[in-house]
Amino acid sequence: MLGALPAWGGGPDAERYAQASPCRYGNVPQLRLDPLLRARAEEVCGRENIRFGHELTALSDSGEAAVATVRDHGTGWLHEVRARYVIAADGGRTCADLLGIEMDGPTGLLDVVTVHATMDLSKWISDEEVLLRYFMTPDGQGSFAGALCAMGPDRWGA
């Protein structure tokens, strides 16, 4: 190891994070989070109220509720949905534009390839407190070659 940097509730930030939440910080990739969110939404709203093949086309705040206009791709039908809040889990691609929120700073800086893999790395990695591990090219030249992110006891993202 060349160095360590506490992050996300580790080291000197542990007490501050503990005061903010009863749960420790964790990393849940979208492919694991989506089924959890869907199951909870079906439990709370009923399976018949969870829809796929729909697109958000307009979004506003009436002062009393969020108002979303949604298109059913199967029928083309547009309908309004009123809710207390909206989760903008769209990677900054839709909601910000619909609300007139501009992104600040440069975009398109690099290309990224994400890999999810299940493997036993315990021979090389023993510290469960580390969330991200950066690795360098073998000759040590240039910038880092990638990052390895813990996504469970035997799951990794790179």
UniProtKB/TrEMBL annotation:
SUPFAM superfamilies: FAD/NAD(P)-binding domain. One of its GO terms (molecular function) is monooxygenase activity. Keywords: Monooxygenase, Oxidoreductase. InterPro entries: FAD-bd, FAD/NAD-bd_sf. Pfam families: FAD_binding_3. Gene3D superfamilies: D-Amino Acid Oxidase, subunit A, domain 2, FAD/NAD(P)-binding domain. Residues 16-151 form the FAD-binding domain. This is 2,4-dichlorophenol 6-monooxygenase. It comes from Lentzea jiangxiensis.
